[in-house]
């Protein structure tokens, strides 16, 4: 019998749930057992504000060290937490179908975000969400918080906070049934972090061919293309994963629509684009994994996606995006 595939994951309930979904799918396509290997990251032990300690790889670095050291065979990440540069020796072997990329506002009484009154306390630790809240609900007070999904919701239930903003995908993956009011924020006016709602399955470049083939079956080409565009924008802005910017791309037929915004920290200004790019006849739909897949003419669709993202980033910079935030906030 083949040895189990060891899946490295953070210990949080959400990370375990995400990894469990991938493990079940991988067991089905590979015919092998997948066992979870809990790993503690800096982001799990350092309770300082993300805006203070920086988000660049804080949840991924220790996991990647474990993978390179042979402590596990694969990793599952929330893609929005990954730096755009993949370390030497590693590759993102699969991006499963993306879940709901929207943010959700959770309140006790169902008051919409834009109608929250003066002094209302809204909890979030995301610089991007802070900038968005200050535009959508300028009379409210933003409280910088950390903690897992359950503890954040509990702070609303107890009355400590009036609202929290969370990722819809996280609630779905945890199977949380909401007893309080939820407001789903539309992506047109409230785009979310690059890669939000997506998972990344990472392994080593010299992983066994059998494992790579199984992971390829979990890859969704449309998802990989869209997140490659979004991460190209992040890369082009030279911004870390906790930067106050948003990018969301959707592939429809032979086009990709991209909505992206860079926010000033206090929300007083923003620079955004809503663009649609042609995909040259839908060339991203090719057989096999999106990782390294080629079209009939030898083109790499994910390289093309990155180039689209870099082009959009250049347009944002030309419009003054770099001036909205300091260098320290971008890194």
Task: Tell me what the structure shows.
The structure is a single chain. The chain is α/β, with parallel strands linked by helices. The chain has two domains: 5-99 and 194-330, Periplasmic binding protein-like II (D-Maltodextrin-Binding Protein, domain 2, 3-Layer(aba) Sandwich); 103-185, Periplasmic binding protein-like II (D-Maltodextrin-Binding Protein, domain 2), CATH 3.40.190. 32% of the residues lie in helices and 22% in strands. The chain has helices at residues 13-30, 42-45, 50-53, 61-68, 127-136, 149-157, 168-174, 209-216, 221-236, 301-318, 327-330, and strands spanning 5-9, 34-38, 74-78, 90-94, 103-107, 121-123, 141-143, 163-167, 181-185, 199-204, 245-252, 255-263, 270-278. The strands form three sheets. A five-stranded mixed beta sheet has the order 2-1-3-10-4, sandwiched between helices. Strands 7-6-8-5-9 form a five-stranded mixed beta sheet, sandwiched between helices. The chain has a three-stranded antiparallel beta sheet with strand order 11-12-13. The model is unreliable at 282-298 and 327-331 (pLDDT under 50).
Descriptors:
331 residues; alpha/beta; D-Maltodextrin-Binding Protein, domain 2; 2 domains; five-stranded mixed β-sheet; 32% helix; disordered C terminus
Quick rundown:
32% of the residues lie in helices and 22% in strands. The chain contains eleven helices and 13 strands. The strands form three sheets. The protein has a five-stranded mixed β-sheet, with helices on both faces. A five-stranded mixed β-sheet has the order 7-6-8-5-9, with helices on both faces. Strands 11-12-13 form a three-stranded antiparallel β-sheet.
